[in-house]
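Exercise: predict the fold of this chain.
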Amino acid sequence: MGMGEFALDLAGTDEYKPCVLDMGPTSPANISFLADRNLRIYNEDILRAAGDPNLLVRQEDGSLRLDAKRFFTENMAHPEHHFQAILCWDVLDYLPEELVKPLVEKIQAMLKPRGRLFAFFHTKDAGPDSPYCHYHIVQPDMLELEPDPGLRIQRIFNNRHVENLFKDCASRKFFLGRDNIREVVVVR
């Protein structure tokens, strides 16, 4: 549903190849799907990058906290208005809290006007043990999921939270997916 809406008219030509960012682990299926549409593909595994222990800084109280400034210096270093489309998957549900809002701001800056973002958000029924998955595009309306048990969901965003995260965008379209997932297509 949402993926089909996201992929609608997403294609380039030999002369013009729009840029697409896949924020999940590298997927040969996704690369093939996007390359077949004459798109220039970028890939950043944001969750793996956020899990880098070298990004942790000891606080005055002795606790460790992710250095968000350093994270963005080393990751997502793309110019403004660079991408026609971004595949966010369910990254925001698993991302450390201190990176969520800055990442959304970065995504919005990187998207071209009228550019699209595709994201999943778990529903309240998903529970904390919802497995993180790698998503592989089989067809515009069909994804293959590969569970990756190494990550735990950090939060559940309700529709209002998602609307607030992307409040500066032109539109947000919600689709009720399967397995306690909401699909969202955001247009900048």
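Check your answer against the key: Strands lie at 19-22, 40-43, 56-58, 64-66, 83-89, 111-122, 132-139, 142-148, 171-176, 181-187.
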